[in-house]
């Protein structure tokens, strides 16, 4: 059983209270590690370390900050296999997905922001011949970074990299469900000679550790990714303290298939957008809205392709869909499939656990790719976030109706549109309430672009300049002539 520690001022530390929490391998259902069950005392210690490190780190030349971030990225790249195996064991995702996409992306996050600070351009404004204004962008201080369990290292570094690059110091909390690669990351930071206290990682539950970071008076900026209800709880505490907040929250994304879509090309990508990472990606398309001219053919072909996906042991090279992150989350997914039936839906693919599963995974948490038809697009199954391998398919008569359905949830994170009439697709994109829209593609990410959600999918944007701005305070200096 691995015993993980907090990482505070570059030291490994247990929780002050001494408690520990178990960490489970979703593929087997067995506990394999423990983390400190930290509380506000551990957070206070981490904030002290981060505050002490701030003057030095914020005044470190950008080139030196970039060098350390790149050194951490180098170490991740040298150990992709170890990180991928750890991420898969911790989260349940196929190891092939972690190896090919998520761990490389964690290194890319660090490299991207290391590069960005070297190419920063300043702003200035001349007020006729009376004055010149220039804008200082200064780090805010100690940033709190709180991340979820679905893409653990990928999202952890997506926050930490811009925070550190811009000269902030950080107190970070990974999900207690998937803490392993964040712990490994701390060890690498020490090896890469990140100065003491610049990054501090506190493990434990949301209500104890996450809430203490949010409530701490010396943490002026909070970058959070997780569920909408948690985001609301965080905002309720942070807003009256006038903290800067970046909230990346839940989604229930539409996939719109127009009558002229090239199904040959589109279906494999739409299947991936539905079931990659067991459907546990905030960007997954879980409500598929199809023009009736194509509905029958689309549904048949989509279901055939979904049936061909192999659900099972995340370590097997031919596994497409791994294990569900926790028993509790599996039960939530199962409850939505049961609800769908009550709401009048018909399960045309999957619906439960896979029949064939490797011996070592008999105690694990699995759910087959599941496709449900015959539901109203406004019912609970079709509008609430399930965050698992479950999609609903809905027929529409025209594009206006497709847009209406895409917009009929409280969320507004992402949408993909598939078709050939690109002009019409641009018009549709402009009318859809989502922060991220893909036309004939999905999950294509350029780290320079703004990323985030509308409505209850979030507040603010990450990525590129948006992240650099979030983690810095703009100060206008006006020089009179
Ligand atoms: P969650 O909200 O339960 O937890 C996220 C993190 O917040 C965890 O580290 C948790 O310990 C912590 N936390 C919990 N309660 C807290 C509190 N009161 N104060 C401070 N921190 C607290 O989310 P989850 O179940 O880990 O992740 C799944 C959710 O994340 C889904 O809703 C998904 O859509 C969302 N998500 C959104 C994005 C995005 O970019 N918009 C990306 C990935 C996941």
Any low-confidence stretches, pLDDT <50, length ≥5?
none
* End-to-end gap: 68 Å
Global mean pLDDT: 98
- Oligomeric description of these chains: single chain
Class derived from helix and strand content: alpha/beta
Shape verdict = globular
Query: Which ions, cofactors or small ligands are bound in this entry?
Result: nicotinamide-adenine-dinucleotide
Helix content: 25-40%
Task: Characterize this entry briefly.
This protein is of the alpha/beta class and 481 residues long. The chain contains 15 helices and 23 strands.
Mind explaining what this structure looks like?
40% of the residues lie in helices and 22% in strands. By secondary structure, it is α/β, with parallel strands linked by helices. It has a seven-stranded mixed beta sheet, sandwiched between helices. Strands 10-9-8-11-12-22 form a six-stranded mixed beta sheet, sandwiched between helices. A three-stranded mixed beta sheet has the order 1-5-4, with helices on one face. Helix 12 (380-383) links the parallel strand 16 (370-373) and strand 17 (390-396). The longest helix has 22 residues, at 95-116. The chain starts with a strand and ends with a strand. The structure holds nicotinamide-adenine-dinucleotide. Nicotinamide-adenine-dinucleotide binds at residues 146-150, 155, 173, 175-176, 205-207, 210-211, 214, 225-227, 230, 233-234, 248-251, 282, 385, 387, 413, 453, 457-458.
């Amino acid at each position: 059983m691995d015993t993980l520690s907090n990482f505070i001022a570059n030291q490994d530390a247990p929780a002050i209270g001494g408690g520990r929490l178990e960490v489970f391998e979703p593929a087997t259902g067995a506990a394999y590690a423990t983390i400190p069950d930290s509380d506000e005392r551990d957070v206070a210690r981490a904030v002290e370390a981060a505050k002490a490190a701030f003057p030095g780190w914020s005044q470190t030349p950008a080139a030196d900050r970039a060098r350390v971030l790149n050194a951490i990225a180098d170490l991740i790249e040298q150990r992709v296999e170890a990180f991928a195996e750890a991420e898969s064991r911790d989260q349940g995702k196929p190891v092939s997905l972690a190896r090919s996409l998520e761990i490389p992306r964690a290194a890319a996050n660090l490299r991207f922001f290391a590069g960005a600070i070297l190419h920063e351009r300043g702003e200035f404004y001349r007020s006729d011949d009376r004055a010149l204004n220039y804008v200082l962008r200064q780090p805010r201080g100690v940033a709190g970074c709180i991340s979820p369990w679905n893409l653990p290292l990928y999202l952890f570094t997506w926050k930490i990299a811009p925070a550190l690059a811009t000269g902030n110091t950080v107190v970070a909390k990974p999900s207690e469900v998937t803490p392993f690669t964040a712990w490994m990351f701390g060890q690498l930071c020490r090896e890469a000679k990140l100065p003491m206290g610049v990054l501090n990682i506190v493990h434990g539950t949301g209500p104890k550790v996450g809430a203490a970071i949010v409530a701490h008076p010396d943490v002026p900026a909070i970058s959070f990714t997780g569920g909408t209800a948690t985001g609301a709880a965080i905002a309720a505490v942070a807003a009256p303290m006038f903290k800067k907040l970046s909230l990346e929250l839940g989604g229930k994304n539409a996939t719109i298939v127009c009558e002229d879509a090239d199904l040959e090309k589109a279906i494999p990508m739409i299947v991936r957008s539905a079931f990659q990472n067991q459907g546990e990606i905030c960007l997954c398309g879980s409500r598929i809205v199809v023009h009736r001219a194509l509905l029958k053919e689309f549904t048949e072909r989509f279901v055939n392709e979904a049936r061909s996906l192999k659900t099972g042991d995340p370590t097997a090279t031919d596994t497409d869909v791994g294990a569900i992150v926790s028993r509790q989350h599996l039960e939530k997914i199962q409850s939505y499939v049961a609800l769908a039936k009550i709401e009048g839906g018909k399960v045309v693919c999957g619906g439960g656990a896979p029949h064939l599963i490797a011996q070592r995974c008999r105690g694990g948490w699995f759910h087959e790719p599941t496709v449900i038809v015959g539901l109203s697009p406004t019912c609970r199954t079709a509008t609430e976030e399930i965050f698992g391998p479950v999609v609903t398919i809905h027929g529409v008569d025209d594009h206006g109706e497709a847009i209406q359905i895409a917009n009929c949830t409280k969320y507004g994170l992402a949408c993909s549109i598939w078709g050939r009439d690109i002009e019409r697709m641009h018009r549709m994109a402009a009318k859809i309430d989502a922060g991220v829209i893909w036309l004939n593609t999905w999950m294509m990410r350029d780290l320079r672009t703004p990323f985030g959600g509308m409505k209850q999918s979030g507040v603010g944007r990450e990525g590129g300049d948006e992240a650099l701005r979030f983690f810095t305070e703009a100060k206008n200096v006006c020089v009179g002539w």
